[in-house]
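Exercise: predict the fold of this chain.
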Amino acid sequence: MKEKNNISNENVEILNGVEEIKESFEEELEELVNKNMGKKLKRVSKRACSNNLLELLTTETKDTLKIIMDNLNISYKSSDKKEVLINNINENYKNSIINLSKCMNLECYDVMEILCKNNGILLMEELDEKMDTVVFMEQLGIIYTALKDNELYACIPSQIKEILSEIDKSKLVYNSEIIKLFKGMLYYYGVLTIEDFMDRLPQDVEIELSLDELDMLLVMEEISTEEYIYIDGLGINSLMDNEEQLEANVNNSEKLTDYKKLTKHEILKACGKEYIGDRKNYKELEKFIKEFYTITEDNFDEMLISTYQSYQRLGQNDLIKDMIEKFPVPQYIQDEFTIVMNEVCKRIPVWSLGGYTLAENNTYVRSDKEVKVGRNEPCPCGSGKKYKKCCGKNA
């Protein structure tokens, strides 16, 4: 029997490429969050559970009130006193939320609906699975945290119940699909401007939002879920793990003139959080790893994400070389490992190739001399399938 090597938590992240500057930033961010949380808890402890907007706003600081007003597009003067800010929010609240709802996702609606069904006040722990959305909705002045009997509660103003009946839920479902399409494209392209997103949509998809409305929708989704990065109209795959790689991909995307055309089904299939492709793409690697190493399912999943990240950053040859060195892979199985990894790499869409896989890039798409392949002939990518059922599906 072959002796298996142990893969521990320490070495499972093979080539995660996380820079020291990122670790330093995360430490500073954690310190800042803890500091702000202390201030927030002081305000929360003074707030009674209520559905009265004026009462809920009273415990907020002027700075927080201005953040809410900025997010709700309510104007104010820098010299305005706290009472003026509160009254201004109260007067414009309903119309501002209705306007904002045009760019909301379905998750925000669901949270509001849950709270309304519970008379606008609910134990915060009941919303644990939606906490990212809850925190985001606090910044919008929709949810307010209160303390009662040493328990945290989520409260919404009574106006929300009135507003909810006026919101067209079908439009939020539509918004959520747009977001899924954007996230799915980021799996293939790595980076994507809002204009390129519109240009590359499949013919059977129409978006009725203006660019400004689409921009607001993508901003709100990024803040509420953190499933991708969105800066000044540029979407970035959340698995892109350093600034150097980002700069290289942005520069490359500006030069590329040929991108893989995607179907709606392909895009929606790729919209999941930290999606790295169909699990079957990694079947040979999974078989190899579990034959020669001892590894938990969680660690194997982390390893796949790390492998995907490193492949996008390093390319096929350098990825395999680094994995052999850092895994480590013993000499007697290195050839087998290389064959396995070559097969895996052929099936992953490459950001620098405009979403094409290596198999597609090396056969019928990107060579100077086009390769003619009959639809019923074996696919040149080596999958064993007919061309029409493999790389020729979208040709």
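Check your answer against the key: The beta strands are 5-6, 121-123, 144-148, 151-155, 191-193, 228-231, 234-237, 293-294.
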